[in-house]
Records
---
Amino acid sequence: MSVFLQLYNGVIKHEGGYNPNDQGAPAYRGINRRYHSSWMGWAQLDRLNPKRGNVFPQLEPLVQAFYAEFWKPVKVDQLNSVKVAQLLVDMKTQHGGWAKIINAGVNGGDPFKVAAKYGTDELNAINSNPELYYTKIAQARLYYCTHVPLKNEADRKSIINRAKSFLNAAVDFVKENPKTAAGGGAALLIVAAIIFFNPFK
């Protein structure tokens, strides 16, 4: 399986099918019509008259083509860890502030106050210790999800749960990579500290 398909399958399981009200606008497989009105799939969906939750296999090539282009700013090919890439593309799919979250996770700071910065310095840091920065970025994401203004407040629980699933995976990520730059035991302590201590308060 290609890296793209691994990432795609990981994201799409969270997205479901057609949603008539995703933060105030229709969405299909995570593609929001307000922000991506030019996506070619909308014309076909309009003819299909979809209901909530509907998934149409004939649209799958268009959905995959959308994400292949949409995820390019994540620079997946420059990341050393597929697991980190999975976190970042999932954030790119769900959050307009994805680059701010990365900056806050790597360089510190409040994800609402830092710049949207994801460049060579951030990439090098992440690649130097994927397990540690996966955890820090996942924590910054959870804080972002907890406090970001939403047009549809009813969506907050699912957004937070999605963020928590990545943060909870951080412990296993470190256990699977005991040669992390922070040292296996030390890294686990760091992960636990990040999970139970909110650095943005």
---
Amino acid sequence: MQVRIGDGIVPPIGKWYNRSSMKIFLLSAFLAVFPSTSYAAAPSEVEAHILASINSIWAMNFDESQAHLEKAKLVEPEYPYIYFGQANLSWLRYVYVSQQTDPALKKKFEKEVQAAVTASKKWLKSHPNDAQAYLALSGAYGLRARLSTIQKHWIRALMDGRRAVKFTRKAHKLDPELYDALLGAGVYDYYSDALPRGIKILSKLILGGDRERGIESLKIVAEKGNFTKIAAKLLLIEIYTEDKYGSRNTEEAVRIISALKKEFPKSPIFHKIEHVCLYEAGRFEELSASIAEYRRRIKLDWPYYPKKDHARMFVTEGTAQFAQKELELAQKSFFKASRLADADDKPERWAVWGMVRLGQVHDALKSRSKAIEAYKSAMAFPDIWGFKGIARSGVRKPILLDLKVGQLPPP
């Protein structure tokens, strides 16, 4: 399960963060905590550019989002949400665009998240009752906690998470009708159980947490929130497709994502999330149609439907076939994905995962030598995403012979 601290969604313990570039766009929920009421001492022009920046994120147009933030900065150079938005964009470029393969982008993110913290604190000195500014500060600490969690610096992540929760609660206290402020607390309440055992105990002592309360908070935000409404819906989708404690509801997840797709018909973000929802709901015929449409858009060069996503489509298709025990078909799909692993100058995450999946299918077909070959092929790539341990296990002994295929995205 995935950990989120404060207003930050903190990978990589969870299923969707490191396991799907689609899920990484759930991380853009951070941008959705931009204020839902008028900005304290911020011109309406700044508000307009920030709103446009958020909309560009959902459309996957990072450059346009960046341009709007720069225009906002020309109007009010000290406004904290501008710096928060900039830090979030750097995070998305590092995690989503480079797939964590570019250390220069990581360094840029670290610099900009600190700038967001500094700008928020400076603004609050002259605007001490600005609830939205506290949300910006909370989100900046949440962003930093996310990186610490990736690096497995649990205590540092927990301390930044503590700060994030503190400031999001401060924002809600200052403005009880600022429903956007409930997002961070709700997220932490639900996901606090996802931390490693020792850290989880410490987390409970420091921050508390209540799974059911977290779900109810997210429902309120999904209904009454302003800029966090979509983020809350995506978080509920995750819960409805992953929850192991009685809240799983895959049909509700499909309903929510179907509505979002209608609202954003050209966005690949929601198209990819639809694949996960349909897979988890076992609606394989509809999933096949959705994959076909995604491929059509790649072929027609739709904006933000890159050719590299062919690997993802092959893995998605193969995983659905695997789950239906159509092993020969799954074998062909994973093989096609694996052929794309080094098609670019950097390894392609879904294609390398396709190699691991290919090994698993070979094992299921009792083709042990081919399985070992596939696992070793995956191990030959840099272990950017933590696949090597799974592949190494596959080399040692056959895995998934009982066809418990598991989730759609990579781990």
---
Amino acid sequence: TMKNQISAKSIRENEKIENALKFKYLRSIFPNFKKMKLIFPILDKIPILLPFFWGYRVIRLVLFRRDRIEKSIRNINSIDVNTISEYDKHMKMVGIDIYNGRETK
């Protein structure tokens, strides 16, 4: 589900659940370089354009895809420390290492 996807991403990108919640909006607005390269392949050749494409992406979403913004905000708002903790607990119970081998603090 979208809730699980956001929980997993929050855990993978931040080592502490509390930090994941702080960055959940920031990551949705400004995806990491790897994801931006998938959206805009030109970044492979000219990575310095990353800030320009972040701006372009925000403007495009605001002008043409407001429904996606509203859906994302609803999904992001539904995530809290409890949701992420439960997801992490379930992944550990079935033997899935959500941290991809990184040490947790």
---
Amino acid sequence: MRIWFVSVTELDDRHLLGEHLELHVMANELISPGGGWRNHPAVRLFRGKLGALYRRHEAQVAEMQRRGFTGHKTPFPVEKIPPDQMDTEVDITAEMLEKDRHDLAYRNRLSEDHGGLSWRKVTQKTSRQP
């Protein structure tokens, strides 16, 4: 599970859609704790910061619409954000941004080098080779 620190405009389609799915998993865990994700580092990062997660969701949806995606049917349950969390932010350092840009470039390079295969499938495939 991962929420990138870069702008949604820097994500390719695959990472944008994947992040959107994972954001909803994370939001569900933060709103109704008790699932298997409660101790995941990304969930812990956004604990008490649902407003920041909501704004990321809205940026994702706007970017998906800008790219011509249709059919978004998963609104963020904004009514479940406690008032004291609405204006919260995640402190993003220059190092965090640099790491994310490096990771994205690496994943995209892996995918390109393997005919568009996702980076995850490439790493699974290569880890099985003797």
